[in-house]
Design brief:
heterodimer, A: two-stranded antiparallel ribbon, 2 strands, B: mainly alpha, 3 helices, elongated
Chain lengths: 385, 143
């Protein structure tokens, strides 16, 4: 939107144009659906909510390779957001508690997608199984006649909706600006597929031809330094990962390529290694962009897994199979996302009792204090000893 | 744009958090207010687990476990408090407790429109008396 672009520096093209209509439609839907003594027709609110979800889907959904993870993610997050909206606009508090159960169950589905099966099981048991059931019991004892006066009214619906959606807009914009950089993406998309295609070629001439330009690495480094200069001109911080990437291309990878190419006969393996290195560095840049990590001199414990401030898994030596194709020994090498341990429960236990031992003990103390406190508060006055 | 990665999960967490915030500010039923606070915690938990997956270590998951622990404690104490408040005023309406506000803050008065009249209950049937009314003596003592 032009208004948004005028407010932010010109690099606001990072923000998808469907953010504003989605937020507006969502705000209108929530405001219309909040309980009132004389409520607006529910159909209008439902239509606005459907429009908001469609717009949000347009900027969250990326039509590409449809994977089972994608389908499950959109199903779970759609159900979670729908149930969340239902919960805050429900007239009957028992239905609101049931909608919250749906929110918890779909967020447990999201936990499972993020390789956290123990968290999924414990959240279902503790949250959906104990906390929400307790709430329903209290509701049953306190409001056994059904929804009361208080459920038909909402306090300052307009102000609350506006401030909530302004916060949501700020969060969404910040996430997008941090993690999605279309300018950088367009630069990389112009160059990296050629490098990937060239790495699959057999001979030096085919590789050089697949790169489509003689000064491939220099051109890429120039475009990146122009992008850095644009960032500086607009007083935006230049990510260190971007500078490292450009320096790696300029100094190491391009010289390796030139040396390999100039050798007589041209060293195909070294050329291919240069291209693989470029791919690995690109993956590292995409994974690190926008991160704030403690410096590498800060030693973090490895009991919870690989410390995030250490370099990712090193690229293993390339292997060549009998056809002469390069094969990486470790397919996860070079990507930031190292594999999560399969025995999640065992590793969570190990992590809790080594890295977080003090927190576990304090959590136990909190639970004890809460038990005693709840019993002490809820005692009737006459029975107080 | 990358197909399905960290920002997607962060946005879902942010949306759940903000919806919980709006519900907490808006609703007047104590139990629903508390459920909205729990929904904010769920949004934060989704964020933490997404970061844990992104960096490939378990710190986010351990943090989320502690969030669940503290949420359970909070639920116990909050329910005890809600019960005490309910016993005092026989209602779960939070605006009945406005005299707990600071002295220089105005009382919040929602547009207290009258609710639509509930339908009048059907009149009870009148039965014919079954026999002569018994003789009752006058009440002489009043306790």
């Amino acid at each position: 939107m032009t208004m948004l672009s005028a407010l932010l520096p010109p690099l606001a093209d990072a923000v998808e144009p469907t953010v504003m209509p989605a937020l507006l439609a969502g705000a209108i839907a929530v405001w219309l659906l909040l309980p009132r003594p004389k409520p607006f027709p529910r159909l209008v609110g439902a239509a606005a909510a459907a429009a908001a979800l469609l717009f949000a889907g347009a900027f969250l959904v990326h039509v590409g390779a449809a994977s089972i993870e994608g389908v499950l993610f959109y199903a779970f997050s759609g159900i979670a957001i729908l149930a969340g909206g239902l919960m805050i606009t429900q007239h009957n508090p028992a239905y609101a508690a049931l909608s919250f159960t749906l929110v918890v169950l779909s967020s447990c589905g999201l936990f499972l997608l993020q390789a956290a099966p123990f968290l999924m099981a414990s959240t279902v048991i503790i949250y959906a199984g104990a906390i929400i059931v307790t709430f329903l019991f209290v509701l049953m004892l306190a409001q056994w006649r059904g929804p009361s006066d208080a459920d038909d009214r909402s306090r300052e619906p307009l102000l609350a909706t506006v401030s909530g959606f302004i916060l949501m807009g700020a969060l969404v914009v910040v996430v997008q600006l941090t993690y999605e950089a279309p300018v950088l993406d367009t630069i990389l998309e112009r160059f990296i597929p050629d490098a990937r295609a060239a790495a699959k070629k057999e001979t030096a001439e085919e590789m050089a031809a697949a790169l489509k330009r003689e000064d491939y690495f220099t051109a890429l480094a120039n475009e990146l330094s122009e992008y850095e200069k644009t960032l500086e001109d607009n007083q935006r911080p230049v990510p260190r990962s971007l500078v490292d990437y450009r320096v790696a291309i300029d100094d190491e990878i391009s010289s390796e390529w030139i040396r390999a190419r100039a050798a007589r006969p041209p060293d195909v393996n070294l050329m291919r290694h240069a291209l693989e290195r470029l791919d690995e560095e690109t993956n590292r840049l995409r994974a690190l962009r926008g991160s704030h990590l403690p410096g590498v001199d800060v030693t973090l414990s490895p009991s919870s897994g690989p410390p995030p401030n250490k370099p990712p898994l090193p690229a293993e030596e390339l292997q060549w199979d009998e056809r002469g194709d390069a094969v990486l020994k470790n397919p996860m090498a070079g990507t930031r996302r190292s594999a999560m341990p399969a025995e999640n429960v065992a590793h969570v236990g190990r992590s809790l009792f080594t890295d977080f031992l003090l927190s576990v003990e304090l959590g136990g103390v909190i639970l004890l204090v809460a038990t005693i406190g709840a019993i002490a508060i809820a005692q009737r006055g006459g029975e107080r000893t | 744009m990358t197909p399905l990665s960290l920002p997607n999960y962060l946005i879902v967490g942010a949306i759940l958090f903000c919806l919980g915030l709006i519900g907490f500010l808006t609703r007047r039923n104590l139990i629903i207010m508390f459920l909205c606070a729990e929904m904010m915690l769920q949004g934060v938990a989704i964020n933490l687990v997404a970061f844990s997956r992104h960096w490939g270590n378990l710190q986010g998951q351990a943090f989320t476990l502690f969030i669940i622990t503290v949420a359970a404690c909070e639920a116990a104490i909050a329910l005890a408090l809600i019960l005490v408040l309910f016993r005092n005023r026989r209602s779960l309406d939070v605006s009945l407790w406005q005299d707990l506000r600071e002295p220089d803050v105005e009382e919040t008065n929602d547009l207290e429109e009258p609710l639509p009249e509930p339908p009048a209950p059907a009149p009870l049937p009148r039965l014919t008396p079954a026999g002569p009314e018994p003789v009752r003596s006058e009440e002489t003592s009043h306790v």
